[in-house]
């Protein structure tokens, strides 16, 4: 197994197609790349669903409160 110095490790981000730009210093050279770790920067779908449910519930409460206030305001104009 090849030993790698920690200072030689590079962290790069991929584009939307999973490609990494290594730089011109690697042009026309054979490069061996090892993926050591992959981090997902996208939110977890369960977390998104929970946040959506919470926001939806809050929106319903707000809409109900607004209806009551709006009705009171209109009633106040009629008198």
List keywords for this structure.
79 residues, mainly alpha, 1 helix
Summarize the structure.
With 79 residues, this protein is mainly α. The chain has one domain (6-78).
* Count of individual helical segments: 1
The structural class is: mainly alpha
Oligomer: single chain
**Mean pLDDT, as a whole number?**
81
Please, could you describe this protein's structure?
With 79 residues, the chain is mainly α. It has one domain. Helix content is 43%, strand content 0%. It is built from 1 helix and no strands. The radius of gyration is 28 Å and the shape is rod-shaped. The chain starts with 44 loop residues before the first helix and ends with a helix. 0% of the residues are buried. The model has no long low-confidence stretch (mean pLDDT 81).
Helix and strand arrangement:
Layout: H1 45-78
């Amino acid at each position: 197994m090849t030993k790698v110095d920690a200072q030689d490790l590079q962290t790069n981000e991929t584009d939307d197609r999973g490609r990494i730009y290594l730089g011109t210093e690697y042009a026309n050279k054979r490069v061996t790349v090892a993926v050591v770790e992959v981090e997902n920067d996208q939110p977890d779908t369960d977390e998104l669903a929970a946040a959506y449910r919470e926001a939806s519930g809050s929106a319903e409460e707000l809409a109900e409160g607004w209806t009551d206030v709006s009705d009171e305001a209109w009633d106040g104009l009629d008198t």
